[in-house]
Amino acid sequence: MFELELSYSVLLIICLVAACSFEFVNGFHDTANAVATVIYTNSLKPWVAVIWSGFMNSMGVFYGGIAVAMGIVNLLPVESLIDQNIAHSISMVAALLLSAIFWNLLTWYLGIPCSSSHTLIGSILGVGIAYSFLPDATSTAVNWGKAQEIGISLLLSPLVGFTLVIILMYLLRVTTKGKAYGEDLFKEPKKNTPPPPWIRGTLLLTCTGVSFFHGQNDGQKGVGLIMLILIGIIPGHFALNANFDASLLLEPIHKIETVIDSIDPNPLSEPDKLRLSEARQMNHRLQNALDSMTSVSMLPRKERFQVRKDILVMDRNLTEIIKKEEARASASDKKTLKDNLKSLRKVTDYSPGWVIVLISLSLGLGTMIGWKRIVKTIGEKIGKEHLTYAQGASAELVAASTIGLSSYLGLPVSTTHVLSSGIAGSMVANKGVKNLQPETVRNILIAWLLTLPVVIILSGSLFLLFRAIF
After folding, report:
1. What does the pLDDT look like over 403-416, one tens digit per residue?
2. CB 203, CB 37: distance < 8 Å
3. What does the buried/exposed string (b/e) look like for 99-131 if buried means 16 or more CB atoms within 10 Å of the residue's CB?
4. Domain-by-domain residue ranges, the chain?
5. Count of Cβ atoms closer than 10 Å to residue 395 Cβ
6. 449 and 407 in contact (C-beta within 8 Å)?
7. What are residue 195's phi and psi, to 5 degrees?
8. Helix (H) or strand (E) holding 11
9. Are 68 and 221 in contact (CB under 8 A)?
10. Which has the closest alpha carbon to 321: 265, 362, 365, 375?
11. What is the maximal distance between C-alpha atoms in the chain?
12. Residues in CB range of 357: below 8 A, 6 or more apart
């Protein structure tokens, strides 16, 4: 398969199955957050809620784009993805998959809402950091700029969720005060009795929104994970979109060359001079490789990873240089460079349709199984009172909006942390901080603080162990 030896073909299949397993676990670990409110407010029967949520998760994967997926892929600079030994690539993939799945299953078993996003990103960072300790490592093994961007997103999103829900609850109280329907909003649901139709419809819409945007954001992480596997193990087949029209790449390459030639290297620092020189060489190499090509599929498979590497490294180098004052680049040159680098990235930032289908099915099916532990924590254990309609709707509306905006910006966020912090915010808005259950909040915070260091150490250690074995 894919011109691999039988043993490596088997390992590739195992890695793909493991990636789908991670997304399956993500389904019942994270999506439980989306159905907790409709279940605990009696808006939907549990089996109806999880089937509907699973379906909307799948739709989110299909229509979510690939911006977040490429953010995951680009956490590891392309140079560190592969070398001549395919076993080393498999070591990388196996280490990050095993550590991510282990931590997700452990926290699910304990009933702790833990972020699959933190888990996956920590695993990737662990492999990258461990790679830098290898004697033959010649370049940085983590894209720290992308890591910082993702880290800020993961850190701020729960705080945003917590704060916005408090504000929204306050506005609901003020605008509905003295009105009959306002009293309904802040009532605790009656046992086995559905809410009034308009409240039920609102909660169904917010559950649908969280489920769809969870699929859009977390589903993309699964897509990115599989692309890491495919690019790392069989780059000749998946480093570039083979169906892309190669002639569409030549014009951006020539426009980028014009901008490169306009930059005076003399005022630049020595590292930037080297970056500029490398970018010029890569641009020429790309012109030679793609000249007279009508389709990327015409490129020999052995050359495709080099083309990918040239595009991504040239992008990184020029983006770094152009923002320096010493480059003396005009606003029009900056725009030209940004637009044409983005056009070039269309051939590297892609995912085959079958990958999206695999992740969609894995996430959707996972949603329908094993959801009870996390639902119970969200519905009963964060606050000291039963979830009211207003609390459930506010938390889910804020969660759906936050996750949807993050997906649009290409930033991964944690559905778990956004929604659980929103539930916490709704409890605080109702009766203050004393309304929170300290033990549950402490467990969630501990899991939040431990996830990154634990999975970084675990995945890094496994990577070095597997490299030594293979």
Report:
1. 888 888 888 887 77
2. yes
3. bbbbbbeebbeebbbbbbbbbbbbbbbbbbbbb
4. 6-151+197-236+353-381+438-469, 240-347
5. 34
6. no
7. -70, 170
8. helix 6-30
9. yes
10. 265
11. 75
12. none
Partners of 436 in the β-ladder: 383
User: What gap in Å lies between CA 396 and CA 379, rounded to an integer?
Assistant: 13
Question: Would you say 463 and 95 are in contact if contact means Cβ atoms under 8 Å apart?
Answer: yes
What is the reported pTM? 0.84
Amino acid letter for position 68: V
d(CA 128, CA 140): 8
- What is the tens place of the pLDDT at every residue in 7-48? 888 888 988 998 898 888 877 766 666 777 777 777 888 778
Q: Are 375 and 207 in contact (CB under 8 A)?
A: no
Task: Please give the C-alpha separations between residue 132 and each of 57, 76, 127, 142, in angstroms, as whole numbers.
Answer: 37, 11, 9, 9
Among 67, 81, 78, smallest CA distance to 316 is for 78
Q: What are phi and psi of 383, to 5 degrees?
A: -110, 170
Coil, strand or helix at 459: helix
Phi and psi angles of residue 368, each rounded to the nearest 5 degrees, phi first = -85, 0
Q: Which residue type is seen at 366?
A: G
Q: Which two tokens stand for residue 58?
A: 């799948």
8 Å CB contact between 399 and 157: no
Q: Six-digit token pair at 175?
A: 């605008």
Listed in order, strand segments (DSSP E) in 58-194 are: none
State the DSSP code for 386: P
